[in-house]
Amino acid sequence: MEQIYDVIVLGAGPAGLTAGLYAGRSRLNTLIIEKGQDGGQIAITNEIENYPGQQVEGESGPSLIARMTQQAEKFGAHRVSDVIKEVSLEGDVKKLTGNKGEYLAKAVIVATGAFPRPIGCENEGKYVGKGISFCATCDAAFFEDFEVYVVGGGDAAVEEAMYLTKFARKVTIIHRRDELRAAKSIQEKAFANPKLSFMWDTVVTKVGGDELLSWMVVKNTKTGEETLIEADDEDGMFGLFGFIGLLPSSKLFEGVLDMENGYLKTDENMHTNIPGVFAAGDIRQKSLRQVVTAAADGAIAAMQAEHYISNLT
Ligand code: NAP
Predict the structure, then answer these.
(1) What CATH number is given for 124-242 in this structure?
(2) Torsion of the alpha carbons at 49, 52, 54 and 60, rounded to the nearest 10
(3) SS3 string of 83-111?
């Protein structure tokens, strides 16, 4: 007979790993399924300075997530790497079907998170990995002494742009409005950074180059004027990083779980519309997407799953 886990946690970011930790610690037979690397958004975040108790100078997302993974494993959560293609969530036994097989559980915690929104310019797909990136932590070193442009005006864009100034010769933030959305404390640091400049009221409309990204067209959102930006002759290329928010990883649950703008709707105890199915972290419809709120969601979801399972006959 196929094994039936108590809980399957889908996704190993801060929400999923915290759910795994709490479920494992409650002696639930727990499986965490992740399709790629652990960490979700924080795996591609350079610096975490607002997670309570985190005071390690320069703590990076990957180092924090490595400790979360170890902690979930310490409490007995099993792990598998697989891409889930299909879900059947009604009834007392939930079934998740992946490339490697089927997984059964009494309860499921969806913690699939969100992924970076594409910049939205012409030819973007051709230059991802050839000049365009969505991860400063991963790719900053490739742009040592080059010029780099960052699209966006939120916390992520401004923080990652500052990180990129440690590598690039010059970093320019391209923002569609004339003021940043980022927290004031982050803005203050950015405006004081001599390697950082700003292109206001501007969007990128088209990118190009031979093999690597070497030109782009930007458009002024107020005047409509278009400008061609080309790489310095000696460089032959430049970097373009996109940090314009996130899109939910919820396609698998379309028509199955209630959503708003692609984010899963839950009550305050992380219950979705299907009994025994919970959602936690960035995938939820919520007001604040941070590591601390993801971790809190994961803890609540695991404890609610425990109550749900203990009430099953
Ligand atoms: P965000 O806060 O949603 O900001 C997205 C930025 O991209 C905004 O400035 C927005 O412009 C711009 N934008 C959106 N769509 C665009 C488009 N199609 N073209 C051009 N620009 C576009 O996203 P985020 O910065 O990725 O942050 C996501 C979440 O993570 C937020 O909750 C944030 O607070 C959190 N976060 C927190 C920290 C931290 O606390 N240290 C660090 C990183 C992220 P407008 O301003 O004009 O709307």
Answers:
(1) 3.50.50.60
(2) -50
(3) CEEEEECCCCCEEEEECCCEEEEEEEEEC
For 264-280, the pLDDT digits (tens) are 999 999 999 999 999 99
163, 188, 244: residue to mutate for ligand 1 pocket, most atoms within 8 A of CB:
244
How many angstroms separate the Cα of 236 from the Cα of each of 10, 195, 214? Answer: 42, 20, 6
CATH fold of 4-116+246-310: FAD/NAD(P)-binding domain (3.50.50)
Q: Which band of pLDDT confidence, cut at 50, 70 and 90, is reported for residue 45?
A: confident
According to CATH, where is 3.50.50.60 located in the chain? 4-116+246-310, 124-242
Q: Is 59 in the pocket of ligand 1 (CB under 6 A)?
A: no
Q: State residue 137's pLDDT score.
A: 84
Q: Which residues are catalytic?
A: 135, 138-139
Q: Is 177 in the pocket of ligand 1 (CB under 6 A)?
A: yes
81-118 per-position pLDDT tens digit? 999 999 999 999 999 999 999 999 999 999 999 999 99
Residue with tokens 């709490």: 22
How far, in Å, from the CA of 304 to the mean position of ligand 1? 31
Q: Separation of 243 CA from ligand 1 center, angstroms?
A: 7
Expressed in angstroms and rounded, the spacing between residue 117 Cα and the centre of ligand 1 is: 10
Residue range 304-313: mean pLDDT, rounded: 94
Q: Does the beta carbon of 157 lie inside 6 Å of ligand 1?
A: yes
* Pocket residue to mutate for ligand 1, from 54, 155, 240, most atoms within 8 A of Cβ: 155
Q: What does pTM read for this prediction?
A: 0.84
